[in-house]
Amino acid sequence: MTTTRSPAQHGFPEGRRIAAALLVSTLAGTALVACGTDAKDSQPAKITWSKCPPLAKGQSRHPNLACGTLEVPLDYQDPDGTKIDVAVSRLSTAQPGKRHGVLLLNPGGPALGGLGMPETMASTLPKSVLDRYDLIGFDPRGVEHSTPQSCGLKDPSVSGLFPYPAADGSITKNVALAKADAEQCADTLGENLRYYSTANTARDMDHIRHALGEKRISYWGQ
After folding, report:
1. Burial of 44 (0-12, 13-18, 19+ CB in 10 A)
2. Whole-prediction pTM value?
């Protein structure tokens, strides 16, 4: 939540090539690994699709990429309490008659936005995937367009957040920095910091599944 970094800093292009290979291999078998719930779902929230947020000058969106927001609980232990918005995107299947389901994409991070992932992955995924799946992206809670949060750190770069150990292997400075960053985040964001977690992001993903009207979803994450 402290920063949003470019996927290039995480070797994202290479990840796309790996993803394409994995998806081709999996589709050659039976189906992509899917996730979902067997519990009876309540009436799902709806996502109203419209234009996506504008990019920086000189950049453009895929003409068929649509975006919307989904309201989710800040605290899943208090589902009727405070709500936050999660931004979601969709690139619909190229062949509606062959549609098999949705493929939810997550760039990882931490703190990487994924709203543009469908158009990014569409350039590398096999035609068999593009013909059968709606590609779904999202900004994880606390990142970019999903109720963004910031700890106000002076150096939110990768090297600033994760410095190398000393020449002798000591991690004393690393531990001190991690403690200082954690304390600053706690002081800045307060008690709500605890709710911007991996577990709640997974719960948000299930809310996305529900809002899309899908009993099960396929997933690719980095």
Report:
1. middle
2. 0.76
